[in-house]
């Protein structure tokens, strides 16, 4: 029996975005195309294992790197950046064959792209950082922004 090919949709809004906003600090974080692939992969896997099946999402970074066609070291750097910026909630946990990553939640992204200037956080005095254009939520598929579809508890 031939294995069925699987797909992950890359929304135009995410493809065109220059980056995302750290929703705690208001900082604009640039996002490479590779980071977008890793984000979509983690989001889809978390959606499947945690949201649809009600289970847990454990995955080796080497598996993620191979799935998105990226170098293991760069994949790890991107995942750590996602963790640092509150996009992904994950930690290493002990298991029978060493340690593995437990991905508890993959949060939604507030994306930005390039046209004009918009202040990210007007409520913060020290936040003078501007990005070009925040993307409205309706340009992004529901599974990327709906909190009920984000996965497990933090």
Task: Supply database-style keywords.
alpha+beta, globular, four-stranded antiparallel β-sheet, two-stranded antiparallel ribbon, 154 residues
Task: Briefly say what this structure is.
The chain has about 150 residues and is α+β, with helices and mostly antiparallel strands. The chain is about 30% helix and about 25% strand. The chain has five helices and six strands, in the order H-E-E-H-H-H-E-E-E-E-H.
Your description of this structure?
The protein is an alpha+beta fold. About 30% of the residues lie in helices and about 25% in strands. The protein has helices at about 10-15, 35-50, 60-70, 70-85, 140-145, and strands at about 20, 30, 90-95, 100-105, 110-120, 130-135. α2 crosses α4 (about 70-85). The termini are far apart.
What is the N-to-C succession of helices and strands? HEEHHHEEEEH
Taking all residues together, what is the mean pLDDT? 78
Secondary structure tally, helices: 5
Structural class: alpha+beta
How much strand? 15-25%
Q: How would you describe the shape?
A: globular
Whole-angstrom Rg: 16 Å
In the sheet with the most strands, the strands line up as 2-1-5-6
Termini gap: 39 Å
Low-confidence stretches: 115-129
Number of strands: 6
Biggest sheet overview: 4 strands, antiparallel
Helix content: 25-40%
């Amino acid at each position: 029996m031939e294995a069925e090919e699987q797909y992950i949709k890359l929304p135009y809004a995410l493809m065109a975005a220059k980056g995302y906003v750290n929703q705690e600090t208001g900082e604009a974080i640039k996002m490479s195309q590779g980071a977008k692939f890793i984000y979509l992969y983690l989001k889809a896997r978390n959606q499947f294992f945690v949201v649809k099946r009600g289970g847990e999402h454990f995955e080796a970074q080497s598996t993620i790197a191979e799935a998105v066609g990226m170098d293991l070291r760069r994949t790890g750097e991107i995942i750590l950046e996602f963790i640092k910026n509150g996009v992904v909630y994950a930690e290493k946990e002990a298991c029978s064959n060493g340690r593995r990553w437990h991905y508890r939640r993959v949060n939604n992204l507030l994306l930005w792209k390039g046209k004009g200037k918009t202040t990210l956080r007007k409520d913060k005095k020290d936040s003078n950082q501007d990005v070009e254009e925040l993307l409205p939520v309706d340009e992004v598929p529901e599974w990327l922004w709906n909190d009920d579809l984000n996965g497990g508890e933090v």
